[in-house]
Design a protein that fits this description.
7-stranded mixed beta sheet; 2 domains; 6-stranded parallel beta sheet; Rossmann fold
Length: 316
């Protein structure tokens, strides 16, 4: 069976540059395992590199996708049939991925596959940020609070002893979900309330940038810490002493293989105990519909590619 992958050969808007390519499978490189993909989600971190925003570290041609889950079909016998996250190698928006054995993350049996597929980008970023900038006893503000990463940041900050967590969100559809997590919802249009909570904020975890970031920084105390981990608005903001930049890639190379695996041993039980949203499945061939759904205002579910050519999810 031919290998199918969703990739791009030039930079531009994802809807313009992505295309499905099919080719015969290549021999498996030494030291790697081959993983038949089950599911791979659509994240902002998947789409932004296609625009050329990080062209200095995005070699072309490229297969899209940074995370997902699959089953090992080739490699040493003790790997065969195991579910793994094939990470930090090839793109995951394809029906099989070759992955270095040291970086393949085994998935525990009690983790359902569509949850496992989302076990890397947002959970690891949230865990690392909370370890670097502890929330215990602090008043926390989240931007883009309807996002998966912010939801985990908020829930895990509460469990780590945060004094209060406020979540700034654009769509009213997110308010009830945030309250269920223990996060106090604040509409992004409510500038007066945002100024009030920012004036008492000791930690801000921001994925938006732009005018919202400027407004929060103008109001927050000089002793507060503003952690920026994204720029979803596409607009920069004024740099002030409170700002700390977080890019997950800057920390990965420093992790030994044992430390890398240990991060996920910590993530899995926390994910099981967290609200992490629903998913909506799309075949890889319907990638345009998946991207349109991703961009839908007030979206409450994560679009995810199902690589097994069925609309019925594989629940492990």
């Amino acid at each position: 069976m031919n290998h199918s992958a969703l990739g791009y050969r030039v930079f531009g808007e994802p809807e313009s540059v992505l295309h499905v390519e099919s080719r015969p499978p290549a021999p498996l490189p030494a030291g790697q395992i081959r993983v038949k993909m089950l599911f791979s989600p659509v994240n902002a971190s998947d789409l932004i590199p296609m625009t050329g925003a990080y062209r200095h570290r995005t070699p072309l041609p490229a297969v899209a996708g940074y995370e997902g889950v699959g089953v090992v079909t080739e490699g040493p016998p003790h790997w065969l049939g195991k579910r793994v996250l094939p990470l930090r190698g090839q793109g995951t928006w394809q029906n099989s991925v070759d992955c270095p054995m040291a970086l393949a993350v085994p998935v525990p049996d009690d983790i359902e596959s569509t949850l496992a597929a989302r076990g890397y980008i947002n959970p690891l970023a949230a865990q690392m940020m909370l370890n670097l900038y502890p929330p215990k006893g602090k008043r926390i503000v989240l931007t883009a609070a309807g996002s998966d990463c912010a939801a985990l940041l908020g829930q895990w900050a509460i469990k780590a002893g945060a004094d209060a967590v406020y979540g700034i969100h654009r769509s009213p559809a997110h308010a009830e979900r945030l309250r269920a997590m223990g996060i106090i919802p604040v509409l992004q249009q409510d500038t007066a309330t945002i100024s009030a909570i920012a004036a008492q904020a000791e930690r801000v975890y921001d994925a938006t940038g732009g005018r919202l970031a400027d407004g929060i920084l103008d109001a927050m105390p000089e002793t507060g810490i503003f952690v920026c981990y994204g720029l979803l608005s596409g607009t920069p903001f004024r740099q002030q002493p409170q700002v700390r930049w977080f890019h997950i890639r800057n920390y990965l190379d420093a992790l030994s293989s044992d430390q890398w695996q240990a991060e996920f041993c910590e993530i899995w039980p926390k994910l099981l105990a967290s609200h992490y949203g629903d998913v909506t499945l799309f075949p890889l061939t319907e990638w345009r519909a998946a991207l349109a759904y991703y961009r839908k205002a007030g979206r409450l579910a994560k679009p995810m590619f199902a690589m097994h050519d069925s609309r019925v999810p594989v629940l492990w």
